[in-house]
Design a protein that fits this description.
The complex is a heterodimer of chains A (217) and B (408). Chain A has 217 residues and is α+β, with helices and mostly antiparallel strands. Chain A contains six helices and four strands. Chain A has helices at residues 12-66, 71-97, 106-130, 147-167, 183-192, 210-216, and strands at residues 134-140, 171-177, 198-201, 205-207. In chain A, helix 4 links the parallel strand 1 and strand 2 (171-177). Chain A is elongated, with a radius of gyration of 25 Å. The N and C termini of chain A lie far apart (84 Å). Chain B is elongated and about 85 Å long. Chain B has 13 helices and ten strands. Chain B starts with a helix and ends in a 5-residue tail after the last helix. Chain B has a seven-stranded mixed β-sheet, with helices on both faces. The model of chain B has no long low-confidence stretch (mean pLDDT 89). Chain B is 53% helix and 12% strand. Chain B is α/β, with parallel strands linked by helices. The chains are: A alpha+beta (217), B alpha/beta (408). Chains A and B meet through helix 1, helix 2, helix 4 and helix 6 of A and helix 1, helix 9 and helix 11 of B.
C-alpha cells in the first residue's frame, strides 16, 4: 500500500476557492440588490412625479373656472399625463416582475393605483366640462396567481393599448389594479358592476371576457 | 425569494466555486504545468492493448506503440478478447514482424477481464494500457515514467486529443476532450484526478496488483480502478507534456451509447464506494461527493429546467390562444423596449461569460488552432447546446440502471 500521506498541503486550495467564490458571489448579490434598489427608487420617484403632476392638473382645473384657459389646453395636459402614467405602468410592472431580492412593490403600487383612480375621476370631470375625449380604463388584479387569468390579463392589457392607438390622440388609457383595497375605486367598480378583469370604454361599454374583446373588434 | 430562485443561486454558487477552484489551482501550478520529472530509473514496461473487433485501427495502434521512444519496453501484449472480425489475424501478422509483440487470444470476457489476463502475464514494473483505437505520441512513455520515482504515484495519464475532426460532433468532442484534459491537470494539486482513461495510462504494476486489478463487473474499468487506487492512497498524476490521439464517435448514436456507458459506469462505481462517503481520504472527501453532487445537481437541474420549460410553454400557449381569440397582436415593440432583465439573468450571463473565457483560455493553451475557421462557432455550440446534453444522458443512464439494463 502507498504510504499514508499526511494532510495534503494543497488542501488549502479548497478553502481559497471557497473564499474566492464567496467573494465573487457576494459581489454579485450586492450588485443585484443595488440594481433592484435603483429600480425601486425609480418607482418611488415616478410616484412623486405623478403626484406632483396630478396636483398640477387639479390646480389647473381650479384655475379654469377663474381664468382664461381653454379646454384644448386642459385636455392636452390631461392626455399627456395619461400617456405618461400608462408608460410608467408598463415599465414598473416589468421592474416588479424582475424583482428577486427586494420586497414587493405592492405599497408603491397601491399609491399609484390611488393616483390613477383620482386621475380617472379628474378625467371624467374634464370630459363633462369640455367633452371630446375618450377614456379607456383597464381594471385588473395585481399579482394574479392563476396562470390562465394572468395570460388573459396580458391579452386585455394589449387590447387596451391597441384600442388607445385606434381611438386617436384624444384618448387616455388608465390601467388600475382593482384588488388593492382602494375604497374610492371599489365604489366606482360597483357603479359599473365590475367583478373581474375588465375594460371600460367611455363609461358606456364594459368588456370583461375574451369573447367580448373579439366581438368589439 | 421562491424555492426555484434559491436553487438557481445554489447552482450559481457551485459553478462559481469550481471555477474558483480551477483558478486558484492554475495560479498555484501555472509555472509547472509542462514540467516533466527527469528519468532516474529505466523502469521495465509492459504495454497492454486489449482489442475487441478493432480490425480498422489495431494495426495503426500497434505501429504507434511500436514507435514509442523508450528503451526498456519489455513487451507489447495484444489481448484479443474473442473478436469476431479480423483483429486477431491482423495482430498475428504483425507479431511475426515485431519482435516485442505478443498476441494473446482469449474468449470474450470484456475489457477489464482482458486487461487482468494481460496483467498476469506482464513482466514490467510499469503497465501501460493503450486502447486499440488510440495512438500515443512517440514521447508519451519517456515523458511519463519519471513520475514513478515518487512511490505514492499509482497511475499517470496524459491528455487525449480527438483524432477525427471531420464533422461538428467530433469537433465538439475535440473541445470537450481538451477542456477535460486541462481541468484534470487543475485537479492534480488537490489529488482530485478521478479517472485515468483507457486511451493511455501508465500504472505501477504492484499498485494494480495490490488493488486486485481491474473490476470485471464494472463497465468503466478505468474509472473504477482510479477510485480503487485513490482508496488505497495512491496518487494519480496528469502529464501535460505529451498526448494520445483517439477516435471519437462521429455519429450521434455511437456518442449516445458511449456517454451512457460512461455515466452508468460512474454510477456503478459510486455505488460500489458508497461507504467511503465523507470518510478517510480524498476519495471520500472530494471525488465521491464531487461525483454524487454532480449527479444530483444534474438530475435536479434537468427537472427544474423541464418544469420551467413547461411553465413557459403553457404561458405562451395560453397567451397565443387568447390573443388569437381576441384578435390582438402577439408581439409588440414595447415587449422589447420594456424588457427588464432580472438579477438571475445577469448572474447567468456573467457565469456564461466566465465559462466561455475559461474554455477559450484552455483551448488557447492546449490547441493552437483555436481561431481557425469554424472553431469559434463550434465553441458557441459547445457552450450553449452540447453541454446541455449531459444531464439528458444522466437521466437516461439512471433510468437504464434502475431498470437493471446494463446494455449500452
Amino acid at each position: 500500500m502507498a504510504k499514508k500521506k499526511g494532510r495534503n498541503p494543497n488542501n488549502v486550495l479548497f478553502l481559497e476557492a471557497l473564499l474566492m467564490a464567496l467573494f465573487i458571489f457576494g459581489i454579485g448579490i450586492v450588485m443585484g440588490i443595488f440594481i433592484e434598489d435603483v429600480r425601486s427608487d425609480r418607482v418611488t420617484e415616478g410616484y412623486f412625479d405623478s403626484q406632483v403632476n396630478l396636483l398640477d392638473m387639479q390646480t389647473l382645473s381650479d384655475l379654469i373656472s377663474t381664468g382664461d384657459y381653454s379646454c384644448e389646453y386642459r385636455r392636452e395636459k390631461n392626455i399627456d399625463f395619461g400617456n405618461k402614467i400608462y408608460e410608467d405602468a408598463l415599465k414598473f410592472s416589468e421592474y416588479e416582475e424582475a424583482q428577486t431580492f427586494g420586497d414587493s412593490l405592492e405599497s408603491q403600487h397601491r399609491i399609484y393605483d390611488l393616483l390613477r383612480t383620482i386621475f380617472w375621476v379628474n378625467s371624467l370631470e374634464l370630459k363633462d366640462d369640455c367633452g371630446e375625449m375618450n377614456i379607456i380604463v383597464y381594471l385588473y388584479n395585481y399579482d394574479e396567481k392563476d396562470a390562465e387569468e394572468k395570460q388573459k390579463q396580458e391579452v386585455f392589457s394589449r387590447f387596451a393599448g391597441e384600442l388607445k392607438s385606434e381611438m386617436g390622440e384624444n384618448t387616455v388609457l388608465i390601467p388600475i389594479a382593482m384588488n388593492l383595497g382602494i375604497e374610492s375605486l371599489n365604489v366606482l367598480k360597483e357603479s359599473y358592476g365590475i367583478v373581474k378583469t375588465s375594460i371600460i370604454i367611455n363609461e358606456k361599454t364594459v368588456l370583461d371576457s375574451i369573447e367580448d374583446l373579439n366581438e368589439f373588434n | 425569494m421562491d424555492a426555484i430562485t434559491g436553487i438557481y443561486f445554489f447552482y450559481m454558487f457551485v459553478s462559481i466555486y469550481f471555477l474558483s477552484l480551477f483558478l486558484v489551482s492554475f495560479i498555484r501550478i501555472r509555472r509547472n504545468i509542462y514540467d516533466t520529472p527527469k528519468i532516474t530509473k529505466k523502469y521495465g514496461v509492459s504495454i497492454l492493448i486489449p482489442a475487441y473487433n478493432e480490425e480498422e485501427s489495431i494495426e495503426e495502434s500497434i505501429q504507434a506503440v511500436r514507435k514509442l521512444d523508450y528503451e526498456n519496453i519489455r513487451e507489447i501484449l495484444v489481448i484479443n478478447d474473442g473478436s469476431t472480425d479480423n483483429t486477431l489475424q491482423i495482430a498475428k501478422k504483425l507479431e511475426a514482424k515485431i519482435p516485442l509483440l505478443r498476441v494473446i487470444d482469449k474468449k470474450n470476457g470484456g475489457k477489464a477481464d482482458a486487461l487482468n489476463y494481460g496483467l498476469k502475464q506482464a513482466r514490467g514494473e510499469l503497465i501501460v494500457i493503450v486502447d486499440s483505437d488510440s495512438f500515443p505520441d512517440a514521447d508519451a512513455l519517456q515523458k511519463t515514467v519519471g513520475y514513478f520515482d515518487d512511490k505514492t504515484v499509482g497511475v499517470v495519464t496524459i491528455p487525449i486529443l480527438v483524432r477525427n475532426r471531420h464533422n461538428l460532433l467530433s469537433r465538439l468532442q475535440a473541445i470537450e476532450y481538451s477542456v477535460i484534459a486541462f481541468t484534470r491537470k487543475l485537479l492534480e494539486p488537490v489529488d482530485g484526478i478521478y479517472v485515468t482513461p483507457g486511451p493511455f495510462a501508465v500504472y505501477r504494476k504492484s499498485a494494480l496488483e495490490e488493488v486486485g486489478g481491474f473490476d470485471a463487473d464494472n463497465i468503466t474499468e478505468d474509472i473504477e480502478v482510479t477510485w480503487n487506487l485513490a482508496a488505497h492512497n495512491y496518487t494519480r498524476k496528469m502529464n501535460m507534456c505529451t498526448s494520445v490521439s483517439s477516435v471519437a464517435p462521429d455519429r450521434l448514436r455511437d456518442w449516445w451509447k458511449q456517454r451512457n456507458r460512461w455515466t452508468m459506469g460512474g454510477l456503478q462505481t459510486a455505488w460500489k464506494y458508497k461507504n467511503r462517503f465523507f470518510r478517510e481520504n480524498i476519495l471520500g472527501y472530494f471525488i465521491l461527493p464531487f461525483f454524487v453532487f454532480g449527479f444530483v445537481l444534474g438530475i435536479l437541474g434537468m427537472a427544474i429546467f423541464g418544469y420551467l420549460f413547461y411553465q413557459g410553454f403553457m404561458k405562451q400557449y395560453l397567451f397565443t390562444k387568447f390573443s388569437f381569440l381576441a384578435d390582438t397582436a402577439l408581439v409588440t415593440g414595447s415587449d422589447v423596449i420594456n424588457f427588464t432583465p432580472t438579477v438571475l439573468n445577469y448572474f447567468g450571463l456573467v457565469l456564461f461569460g466566465l465559462m466561455f473565457l475559461f474554455t477559450l483560455v484552455v483551448l488557447g493553451i492546449i490547441e493552437s488552432e483555436l481561431f481557425k475557421g469554424k472553431r469559434f462557432f463550434d465553441l458557441l455550440v459547445y457552450l450553449t447546446f452540447y453541454l446541455l446534453l449531459g444531464p439528458i444522458v444522466l437521466l437516461t443512464a439512471t433510468f437504464k440502471l434502475i431498470k437493471g439494463d446494463m446494455r449500452w
